[in-house]
Amino acid sequence: MKILIIQQKMIGDVLTTSILFEALREKFPKAELHYVINSHTFPVVEHNPFIDKFLFITPEIEQNRLKFLSFSRTIQKEKYDTVIDVYGKPSSILMSAFSKAKKKIAYHKKHTSFIYSHAIKRKSTPEYAASLAVENRMLLLKPLGIDFKNIQPKIYLKEDEITSAKNYLETNDILLNQPLFMIGVLGSNPSKTYPFEYMAKLIETVAQTKNAQILFNYIPTQEEEAKAVYELCKASTQEQIHFDVFGKSLREFLAILSQCDAIIGNEGGANNMAKALNIPTFTIFSPYLNKHNWFGENEEVQNVAVHLSDYIDLQASDVKQAKKQSALYYEKFKPSFVKSKLEAFLSTFSK
């Protein structure tokens, strides 16, 4: 049996969809399992023992119709028995159609259902206390006789990567026997970014943890914004922040993250990666997002997620408005709301 899963675009999506391979391997130990992903997302699934082969969509393939057509024909030549299209956009629909697999599985959409042998309707409420991101993905395996399994995404690091990260941190005067916290200072866009002034106040709370050492998660193009948050912190807190310590690649970042006691900050890929490394997370969700999409009750043992709706009543109309006027709704999401939960979360990390 030969199975292809298609999941393009975001790193968090590619990581979450990787749970399907573990479930498939358990059900079909001799199956050949392939994964179509964007090339830049590979680091989060590198060394995954359940995936036999990766097919990479490069920027060149995305931007050139002839190259994309050639890529789709490559899929056709693989002669897959089953294709699972998790992405469900024009590019993946075309790949699915080209595959000529007997079983083609995707989420139900009126205008594309005829392409697939199985069109699965998403659930809107979690049934097994997992996130909707996990539960809805597991639904795609039903046509293959696989029921829900509580599988969480996992990132696989090599020993030399971990050793290199430890050496890098120690070279930069970080004590690995003292609490080390990563701060997700920025979201993927302004509508997913907790106000800088509010974030600085939460960082002050983190800094009060005995012997706390703090890292900022940002990429070089975000340095100016990250610096703006840093400048809003007290001078004493700034001394605890190792601003220039960060991974130069995604794998380096993951190895550094694996040495942290926790990550605190905006919802996004970094928090999902931390969970996949079994690192505790304290996540601040944007007011317009549904917290249950990316956070399940079964994660509450070591993870915390906060949303404006946890503190004030929000109507459906508020959620729609929050996407258009994120700053207005973020202003209501006071650090004082979050502080006690954050302090309780941090209390377990004193060394």
TrEMBL record:
It comes from the Bacteria. GO terms for biological process: lipopolysaccharide core region biosynthetic process. Keywords: Glycosyltransferase, Transferase. InterPro entries: Glyco_trans_9, LPS_LOS_Heptosyltrfase. Transmembrane segments: none annotated. One of its GO terms (cellular component) is cytosol. SUPFAM superfamilies: UDP-Glycosyltransferase/glycogen phosphorylase. One of its GO terms (molecular function) is ADP-heptose-lipopolysaccharide heptosyltransferase activity. This is Glycosyltransferase family 9 protein. The lineage of its organism: Bacteria, Pseudomonadati, Bacteroidota, Flavobacteriia, Flavobacteriales.
